[in-house]
Amino acid sequence: MLSLHHDKNSLIPHNKNSNLPLLIHFPWQTVSLLHHKPRYESSEAKCTYLTSTARCDPQGYMNYLYFFYCVCGNYPALGYILLLMWLILLFYLLGNTAAHYFCSNLEGITRLLKLSPTIAGVTLLALGNGAPDIFSSIVSFMDPDTNVVGLNSILGAAFFVSCVVVGTISICVGRREIIIDKLSFIRDLGFLLFVLLVLLMIIIIGNINVFCALAFTSLYLVYVLVVSIGHFFWKEDEKKGLIDVCPPSCSAKAFSFQATEHGDLETSLLNSMAEMDESIEGRRADEPNSIKSYFKITSSTSSCFHKILYLLDLPLYLPRRLTIPDVSGQKWSKPYAVASAAFAPVLLTVIWNSKRKEKTTEERMVIYLFGGLIGMAFGTVALWKTKKDRPPTQFLCPWLAGGFLMSVVWVCIIAEELVSLLVSIGVVLEISPSLLGLSVPAWGNSLGDLVANVFVALQDEPGGAQVAISGSYGGPIFNILVGLGLSLLLSSWAAYPCPLVIPKDPTLFQTVGFLVGGLLWALLMLPCRGMKLDRVFGCGLLTIYLFFMSLRFAESLGLLQLQ
């Protein structure tokens, strides 16, 4: 995240007029000498260090180190509180944007392409389910100083979901003696083990070229093929609701598959974040399509608490709603559609100019003018071609493509800011990026899986626990192969013809080792217990995860040294 601008003839950046220490970046640990020099204990000295010694450019749009040490220097408690609140808000925005905009457009594309539910489940809708993890990983790999965070966040999320989520589900449904399908369980868990072994080989080798990265990512196509073959040959079992053939996205976090009496699969886009915001989003869909409708709240339908929620959510909702085209039936609004068509190009030009700081004022104005003219043209066409009472039925592809593009832009913006904040928090708290990636982003992006999958498992509908367990193993497969795979592919492409060097982090071997241990526990225990989800199985998984995290925190605090 932090890049130091220095003389290219010098290995360590420096300031000729000062002997102050500098931020030094190691492959697996970010160390700030500020924390180890007694003369820089005061906030004023640390602020002087940041502003006068080295130019620390944040990867995101805000300089959090400057904010903490300079703005909140004399009130560190206030700084911690504000950074924590902003972190929670960014996690909410990341999940909410993926749920209500990214997934919505993916669902429309799926219907437009007339994909079967099975293929849609392991491709486009799986992408919607893993969007926060995927984009966070891609953004973190854009900077060599933050790729450790991305690598550990993907593995940490896989560990959390396969142990904590599966363990919690098993404990919650333990008394019901639910039996899950053995073939689909072995298929998902076995492929996840294979993927982890391939990833372990890459980590041991220490580098990867663009062709190997492409082959690693392409393994997901093999998984899609296996799932499709299973769907073809296990049709009769699927009709009985015994086998779930769409594991990667079968959690309620993105959508669910339910077997009908005719043996077809009905695909419905759900989301745990959407359920949390159901009252807000539902009212947006039902009320008149204007900003004023936000404030038409009667005492019989809403409380003062809901009014506060509307007011707090409005500044978070409007910027995205006014720039992301949305042609879903429930949320259709012609004023918003026209506005999004007009403002989307403007937002793209703003982002383009913010990333091109070397451009002159005249060049920036030309870009703004160009974006504004395109926006006016798109807005005029949208005003002329759309109807007030229903979304367009013709030329639907440009609307869906535009909505998909802008939702990706917003998710990338939020993910970039989230990674920037996480690394800054790591510097402030002196936490290694590897431990930071294993904990905060992994937990934040996986809480939706925990709530949604447990909710699905506790339902009385047949196959609910099967759907939840399959999603808990299929989701990490997608996130590792596609999320981490795309990150490696893009980074190795940028480094071509040289191979991409994988960060030398010894803790990665611990993470993969314990993750494989948790999967082997599941692979051995469930068949031995007749494929029944019970508390013994669930408590074992939770124990493995808690022991691993305790070990990592003990290492971070200096209480234990294993490396």
UniProtKB/TrEMBL annotation:
<feature type="transmembrane region" description="Helical">
    <location>
        <begin position="66"/>
        <end position="94"/>
    </location>
</feature>
<keyword id="KW-0739">Sodium transport</keyword>
<feature type="domain" description="Sodium/calcium exchanger membrane region">
    <location>
        <begin position="84"/>
        <end position="227"/>
    </location>
</feature>
<feature type="transmembrane region" description="Helical">
    <location>
        <begin position="332"/>
        <end position="353"/>
    </location>
</feature>
<feature type="transmembrane region" description="Helical">
    <location>
        <begin position="536"/>
        <end position="554"/>
    </location>
</feature>
<feature type="transmembrane region" description="Helical">
    <location>
        <begin position="214"/>
        <end position="234"/>
    </location>
</feature>
<keyword id="KW-0050">Antiport</keyword>
<keyword id="KW-0472">Membrane</keyword>
<feature type="transmembrane region" description="Helical">
    <location>
        <begin position="477"/>
        <end position="496"/>
    </location>
</feature>
<keyword id="KW-0915">Sodium</keyword>
<dbReference type="Pfam" id="PF01699">
    <property type="entry name" value="Na_Ca_ex"/>
</dbReference>
<keyword id="KW-0813">Transport</keyword>
<feature type="transmembrane region" description="Helical">
    <location>
        <begin position="115"/>
        <end position="142"/>
    </location>
</feature>
<keyword id="KW-0406">Ion transport</keyword>
<dbReference type="GO" id="GO:0008324">
    <property type="term" value="F:monoatomic cation transmembrane transporter activity"/>
</dbReference>
<protein>
    <submittedName>
        <fullName>Cation/calcium exchanger 1 isoform X2</fullName>
    </submittedName>
</protein>
<dbReference type="InterPro" id="IPR044880">
    <property type="entry name" value="NCX_ion-bd_dom_sf"/>
</dbReference>
<dbReference type="InterPro" id="IPR004837">
    <property type="entry name" value="NaCa_Exmemb"/>
</dbReference>
<comment type="similarity">
    <text>Belongs to the Ca(2+):cation antiporter (CaCA) (TC 2.A.19) family. Cation/calcium exchanger (CCX) subfamily.</text>
</comment>
<feature type="domain" description="Sodium/calcium exchanger membrane region">
    <location>
        <begin position="400"/>
        <end position="553"/>
    </location>
</feature>
<keyword id="KW-1133">Transmembrane helix</keyword>
<keyword id="KW-0812">Transmembrane</keyword>
<dbReference type="GO" id="GO:0015297">
    <property type="term" value="F:antiporter activity"/>
</dbReference>
<dbReference type="InterPro" id="IPR051359">
    <property type="entry name" value="CaCA_antiporter"/>
</dbReference>
<feature type="transmembrane region" description="Helical">
    <location>
        <begin position="508"/>
        <end position="524"/>
    </location>
</feature>
<dbReference type="GO" id="GO:0016020">
    <property type="term" value="C:membrane"/>
</dbReference>
<feature type="transmembrane region" description="Helical">
    <location>
        <begin position="404"/>
        <end position="429"/>
    </location>
</feature>
<feature type="transmembrane region" description="Helical">
    <location>
        <begin position="154"/>
        <end position="173"/>
    </location>
</feature>
<feature type="transmembrane region" description="Helical">
    <location>
        <begin position="365"/>
        <end position="384"/>
    </location>
</feature>
<dbReference type="GO" id="GO:0006814">
    <property type="term" value="P:sodium ion transport"/>
</dbReference>
<feature type="transmembrane region" description="Helical">
    <location>
        <begin position="185"/>
        <end position="208"/>
    </location>
</feature>
